Each structure stands twice: as structure tokens, then as C-alpha cells.
């Protein structure tokens, strides 16, 4: 039976999202902010984060998938492309987790082709142990060293996205 070790509670997530939302609202005041949620994992995080941002902004989605079980296949497949025009706009990529960093590196390179004014990254979890590429998170809600994380949108083979808090999964 899998075990779920609570790492970050619902209350802690709520408190941290309020802070990050306020910071984004200040930093992007007078900018043309577009949040791009990376599906599927970011759907819960994005839904809560957007409601903590007090300035006008638009929302779009991009789909990227590479994990099977607890490891990356190394093949990042784009399952959806953004619909909005991104040229000359201020893009904030919203991700559930940066792990090896390969997904966000590839997405950043892809979005750059649309000639945005700026691109930054907001991640719920910045996890360090398996990092393979040099890429920085601009807005990090929680920093973790290791573990395989589920809940609050994050899955293991498509399950456990519905858990309300953030857990370390022990298989
Ligand atoms: O930094 P990396 O090692 O590339 O890992 C991070 C990516 O992996 C997960 O996506 P996944 O492939 O599981 O797709 P999902 O969002 O649909 O679950 C996660 O949502 C990130 O997009
Ligand atoms: O720790 C993780 N949990 C869930 N999905 C992931 N995708 C990359 N790392 C993880
Ligand atoms: Mg996944």
C-alpha cells in the first residue's frame, strides 16, 4: 500500500499563495500579464493563484507531458499550445513543480519563439535533487530537496491530483 507523508498543509499553501499573489500583483502592475498554466499538473495551483492576484491579467494553458511513474521519460510531448497572442506581452509560466528542469527549459524556449516582452517562471515546488539543467524559478512557493510529490494537482501515474495538500509518496 502506498504511504502519503504530509509535507505542506492546506493552510500553509493558502498562506504562501497569498504572499506570492501579492508580490506578482506589485511586480506586474502596469504590465501586460498573461499567466500560462502548464497542464495538467498546474490546474489546482493556477486556479488558486489567479484569485490571489489583484491586477488585471489573462490566462492561457500549455500542455506538456514527460513522466511515467516517478521518472521522466526524457521525451517532453506538447499536448496543447497556448491560444492567446503572446507577442510583446509579459508571460508568467505557472508550473506545479520544477524537478530536472527539462520541461520548463523546453517550454521557455518554445514560448520565446512568440516574441514575448518577458518570460518568468512561477512554481509551486522547486525540487533540487534531480536538477539537470541550469534554470531558475522566479517565484517559488516551496523549496524541497527530494521525494516524489503528489497532491494539489501533482500526480503519480495520473492519480492523487485531487489530494488537498502536498505529500511525499512512498511506494
Ligand atoms: O522538471 P521536470 O523533471 O521536467 O518535471 C516537471 C514536469 O513534470 C510534471 O509533468 P508530467 O510529465 O508529469 O505531466 P502532468 O503535468 O500532466 O502530470 C510536472 O507537472 C512538470 O511539468
Ligand atoms: O515529484 C514529482 N511529483 C509529481 N510529478 C512530478 N513531475 C516531476 N517531479 C514530480
Ligand atoms: Mg505528472
Task: Please tag this protein with its features.
single chain; 171 residues; alpha/beta; Rossmann fold; three-stranded antiparallel beta sheet; 39% strand; binds 1-O-pyrophosphono-5-O-phosphono-alpha-D-ribofuranose; binds hypoxanthine; PRTase-like; nucleotide-binding; transferase; nucleotide binding; magnesium
Secondary structure layout plus pairing:
Elements: E1 3-8, H1 10-27, E2 33-39, H2 43-50, E3 58-68, E4 71-80, E5 90-98, H3 102-112, E6 118-127, E7 139-144, E8 149-150, E9 166-170
Parallel strand pairs: 2-3, 2-5, 5-6, 6-7
Antiparallel strand pairs: 1-9, 3-4, 8-9
The chain binds 1-O-pyrophosphono-5-O-phosphono-alpha-D-ribofuranose, hypoxanthine and magnesium ion.
Structural notes for this entry:
The structure is a single chain. By secondary structure, the protein is of the alpha/beta class. It has a single domain, classed as Rossmann fold. It contains 3 helices and 9 strands, in the order E-H-E-H-E-E-E-H-E-E-E-E. It has helices spanning 10-27, 43-50, 102-112; strands at 3-8, 33-39, 58-68, 71-80, 90-98, 118-127, 139-144, 149-150, 166-170. The strands form 2 sheets. It has a 6-stranded mixed beta sheet with strand order 4-3-2-5-6-7, sandwiched between helices. A 3-stranded antiparallel beta sheet has the order 1-9-8. Strand 2, helix 2 (43-50) and strand 3 form a beta-alpha-beta unit. The chain starts with a strand and ends with a strand. Residues 41, 67, 155 line the site of magnesium ion. InterPro entries: HGPRT (IPR050408), Hxn_phspho_trans (IPR005904), PRTase-like (IPR029057), PRTase_dom (IPR000836). It catalyses: IMP + diphosphate = hypoxanthine + 5-phospho-alpha-D-ribose 1-diphosphate; GMP + diphosphate = guanine + 5-phospho-alpha-D-ribose 1-diphosphate.
Amino acid at each position: 500500500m502506498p504511504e502519503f507523508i504530509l509535507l505542506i498543509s492546506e493552510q500553509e499553501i493558502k498562506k504562501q499563495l497569498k504572499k506570492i499573489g501579492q508580490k506578482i500583483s506589485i511586480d506586474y502592475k502596469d504590465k501586460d500579464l498573461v499567466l500560462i498554466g502548464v497542464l495538467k499538473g498546474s490546474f489546482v495551483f493556477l486556479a488558486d493563484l489567479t484569485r490571489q492576484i489583484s491586477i488585471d491579467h489573462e490566462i492561457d494553458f500549455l500542455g506538456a507531458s514527460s513522466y511515467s511513474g516517478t521518472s521522466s521519460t526524457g521525451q517532453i510531448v506538447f499536448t496543447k499550445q497556448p491560444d492567446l497572442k503572446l507577442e510583446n506581452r509579459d508571460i508568467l509560466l505557472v508550473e506545479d513543480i520544477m524537478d530536472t528542469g527539462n520541461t520548463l527549459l523546453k517550454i521557455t524556449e518554445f514560448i520565446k519563439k512568440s516574441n514575448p516582452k518577458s518570460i518568468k517562471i512561477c512554481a509551486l515546488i522547486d525540487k533540487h535533487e534531480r536538477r539537470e539543467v541550469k534554470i531558475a524559478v522566479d517565484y517559488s512557493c516551496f523549496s524541497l530537496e527530494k521525494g516524489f510529490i503528489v497532491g494539489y494537482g501533482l500526480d503519480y501515474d495520473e492519480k492523487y491530483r485531487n489530494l488537498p495538500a502536498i505529500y511525499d509518496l512512498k511506494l
